[in-house]
Design brief:
It is a single chain. This protein is α/β, with parallel strands linked by helices. The protein is built from eight helices and twelve strands. The chain folds into two domains: about 30 residues; about 250 residues, Alpha/Beta hydrolase fold, catalytic domain (Rossmann fold, 3-Layer(aba) Sandwich), CATH 3.40.50.1820. The protein starts with a helix and ends with a helix.
Length: about 280
């Protein structure tokens, strides 16, 4: 009888232990962000729209580690899938988790685009979704954008405080984006091609927007964040880099002008992604 009692207790302990293991695995699987596509539902033009967001992570992800996040925005007419290969080297090595949202009607709404979506709200929904996972470093969320996507990055920089650093490529501030006293300090690396014939580097009107001069755009950020307006300038045969220091909250504002590059900066400056990640990683 005593043997039966001991066996019963042992059986109960084993079952309880197994329950805990199953529960732990379930918790881990539901709270660890891995490569997949998530869908964000948003109302646009009085209709509910399902908007896809590609997630790319290290295949053998460390469930105990918190990873930085890079949200990347495609240009007008582009696709979020383009970022999968562009940033594959970094996501496959576990440098960061890549998050690639799709613009509605293949654009980001800055005021004159085909889309009427509230894209700032869309990104807020994505950020809230990211916050629900245990392996996200919420203090190290960054954003990259190209062309129209760079405009979206600038808009997010002016209206939100989610980001540690921003890298707008091939687009500077437009006059409809206000950088004000309400704008939270954020580190910025703006990159432009000096030979850009799509977005005028010296400013002007295109696509229904009025673009500021690229250098003046950076000065506006630096002025608002009370940086030293006498930048450190480094120059070589490929580029000129302006670094504004002494800013609020120890942020940094930088402008990288690629001399022989056009609108597709990476075509003439393939190291651009490594330069951007080094900038982010040192913040």
């Amino acid at each position: 009888m005593n043997h039966l009692y001991i066996l019963t207790i042992f059986s109960l302990l084993i079952n309880c232990s197994n329950d805990k293991i199953v529960s732990s695995e379930f918790y881990e699987n539901t709270n660890t962000l891995r490569s997949k596509i998530i869908i964000i539902e948003q109302e646009i033009d009085n209709q509910l729209v399902n908007r896809p967001v590609i997630i790319r992570t290290l295949e053998e992800i460390d469930t105990l580690k918190k990873y930085p996040v890079v949200i990347a925005f495609h240009g007008r007419g582009g696709s979020n899938s383009s970022w999968v290969n562009i940033l594959k080297e970094f996501t496959d090595s576990g440098d960061f988790i890549g998050v690639y949202p799709q613009g509605y009607l293949k654009s980001w709404n800055l005021g004159t685009e085909p889309s009427n979506a509230d894209d700032v709200d869309f990104i807020k929904k994505i950020i809230r979704e990211l916050y629900s996972y245990d392996n996200i470093d919420t203090t190290r969320i960054f954003a990259i954008g190209a062309s129209n996507g760079a405009g979206m990055v600038n808009l997010l920089g002016s209206k939100t405080n989610y980001f540690k650093g921003l890298a707008p490529i091939a687009s500077q501030l437009i006059t409809s984006i206000d950088v004000t006293n309400q704008t939270d300090p954020v580190s910025i690396l703006q990159i432009n091609g000096a030979q850009d014939n799509t977005v005028p580097i010296n400013g002007g009107s295109r696509f229904g927007h009025t673009f500021l001069d690229a250098y003046q755009s950076v000065v506006i950020w630096a002025t608002q964040f009370k940086c030293n307006l006498d930048p450190n300038i480094s120059e070589n045969e490929l580029s000129i880099r302006y670094q504004f220091s002494g800013c609020l909250d120890e942020i940094t504002i930088e402008y990288l002008r690629i001399e022989n590059a056009g609108h597709n900066v990476a075509e003439n400056y393939p190291q651009i992604w490594e330069v951007i990640w080094n900038f982010f990683n040192n913040l």
